[in-house]
Write the structure tokens for this entry.
Amino acid sequence: MDAAFTAEQEGIRRTLREVLGRRCGPDRVKAAVRTAAGYDRELWEQLSREIGLPGLAVPEEYGGVGCAPADLVLACEETGRALLPSPLLATAVLAAPLVAALGSAGQRAALLPPLAGGGLTAALAVPGPALSAALGLTGDAAAGEWAGGGRAGGVQARRAPDGAWRLYGEAAQVLDGHSADLLLVPAHAGGFARSRVLLFVVRANAEGLVRVRQTALDETRPQALVQLRDVEAEWLGDGDPFGAPAAVCGALAAVGRTAAAVLAAEAAGAAGRALERTVEYVRTREQFGRPIGSFQAVKHRLADLYVQLQAARSAVCYAAWDPAQGGLALAQALEALRLAAGEAIQLHGGIGFTWEHDAHLYFKRAAADELLFGPVHLLRAHAARQAGLFAPGPGSDPVPATPTPTPTGRAAV
């Protein structure tokens, strides 16, 4: 493994930092998230046109840049530094790889080029509370429990006599669901006896589709309530829809590994910027006739943050090389961001506690990402289970079953 960045990777990072430094300061972030789209459309078009950001990991044959997913991971450390509000996560990290993995040749040819060029945005219509399980970050995506029940719950699909698919149901807290040009909707199909989770494409102008933007803790990651009222949809796939029942869950788990590395990079970038801003402040803020950064207690706190940050960056680099380690990297980075944001508020003193201060942008990102993609202890527990650390050894007693409450209040096993 060569941990050094290539000249191309350094060029992407440098260009992104320059553009975002000019166009994505804290004041502009606050203004952008309050627009109808939830992001700066002009900046998104510039990043798509000049850098090819949404198409970094899309093959060249479909209009992308053709880089490896590692390049997208490293680029996202810069978007995390600026807390860039954009459709990048929903479109390039979640939706485009699913289209590439599951779509037919015609669907890939029709959808991937505009997705890679930034002219088309997409969202994965999985409810926010179930997103980490659907991506295989905190649970087994193949179990399908995140999609609701087969008879009811979640989104249901039925096939009309003319062969068209119709969807009904709803999903709440869908990332970028209010502004995406198309939705990728997992839905149960085949009835109760042959229930399978399939993935469908729904256009933004489809009749019966209702989307309402919801209030979110972190405005840089807008969320929406998506309701499907007998909406016409296109199955994303080729051949027999029920021939490969595990295809959707397997594709989601594969996307989840890369998404975890991307989210870890964003969190590490945000933590690094929060630490930089805090160091700048304690160097100039004076108390008792000297900068507060000169006090030993403050130095120790900042040193601890620096160690956490470097550990997170190392984990991100490893995950960029081996996406299977994305879950652990995400846990490390989310923890670093939470600590960095908390210390930023504390060390900024009275002004840091005001809700309008820039430090709270990082605090909200840390809290919201843990709610959507964590929490940290579940990420680590799932990684440990996958590594077999909790498997009973030879001759050891099996893990006891979880007690089930009974109507009498006593636990039954």
Notes: Confidence is low (pLDDT under 50) at residues 396-413. The two ends are 48 Å apart (CA to CA).
